C-alpha cells in the first residue's frame, strides 16, 4: 500500500562551495565518502541530488515520524538509487539537468 509520495527540486548552484557543517547536515557517513571522491561540479550535483531525495522522503513519510537527513542513507543497487528505512519500501528517482536537481519518491508500507 502506498503511504506517501514526495517530490523536491533545487538549483544545483545553491550547493556549490558549501561548508563542512552543511555537508554533514545532509549526508550520511557512507554518502560523505562518495561525495569526497567527486570533483568540481560533480560535488554540487551529488549534494543537490541527495538533498532533493531526502526532502522528498521526509515529505512522504508519515508526519508522526521524524528523521534527520544524515539518518537517511541513499545508496545504489543495480545502478538505481535505493533507501532502506525500517518498515518502508522506498522507490527513488534522482535526476540532474543543467541547473537543477529533482527527486521523486514513493513510499510503501511493508
Summarize the structure.
The chain is an alpha+beta fold and 110 residues long.
Description:
It is a single chain. It is globular, with a radius of gyration of 13 Å. The protein contains three helices and five strands. The chain is of the alpha+beta class and 110 residues long. A five-stranded antiparallel β-sheet has the order 1-5-4-3-2. The chain has one domain: 4'-phosphopantetheinyl transferase domain (Ribosomal Protein L22, Chain A). The protein has helices spanning 20-26, 29-36, 41-60, and strands at residues 2-11, 74-77, 80-85, 88-97, 100-109.
Features:
110 residues, alpha+beta, Ribosomal Protein L22, Chain A, five-stranded antiparallel sheet
Distance between the termini: 8 Å
How many helical stretches? Answer: 3
Low-confidence stretches: none
**Amount of beta strand:** 35-45%
Rg calc: 13 Å
* CATH top level class name: Alpha Beta
Biggest β-sheet strands, sense, barrel: 5 strands, antiparallel
CATH topology: Ribosomal Protein L22, Chain A
In CATH, what is the homologous superfamily?
A: 4'-phosphopantetheinyl transferase domain
Query: What is the topology, as strand order, of the major beta sheet?
Result: 1-5-4-3-2
Apparent shape: globular
- Helix fraction, binned, reads 25-40%
User: What would you say the CATH architecture is?
Assistant: Alpha-Beta Complex
Mean pLDDT score: 94
Assign the structural class, choosing from mainly alpha, mainly beta, alpha/beta, alpha+beta, or little secondary structure.
Answer: alpha+beta
Question: Total strand count, please?
Answer: 5
How many structural domains does the protein architecture include? 1
**Series of H and E elements:** EHHHEEEE
Amino acid at each position: 500500500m502506498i503511504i506517501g509520495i514526495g517530490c523536491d527540486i533545487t538549483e544545483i548552484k545553491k550547493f556549490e562551495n558549501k561548508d563542512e557543517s552543511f555537508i554533514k547536515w545532509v549526508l550520511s557517513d557512507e554518502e560523505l565518502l562518495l561525495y569526497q571522491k567527486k570533483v568540481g561540479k560533480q560535488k554540487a550535483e551529488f549534494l543537490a541530488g541527495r538533498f532533493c531525495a531526502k526532502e522528498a522522503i521526509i515529505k512522504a513519510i508519515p508526519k508522526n515520524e521524524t528523521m534527520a537527513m544524515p539518518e537517511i542513507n541513499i545508496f545504489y543497487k543495480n545502478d538505481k538509487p535505493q533507501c532502506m528505512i525500517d518498515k518502508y519500501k522506498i522507490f527513488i528517482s534522482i535526476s540532474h539537468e543543467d541547473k537543477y536537481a529533482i527527486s521523486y519518491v514513493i513510499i510503501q508500507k511493508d
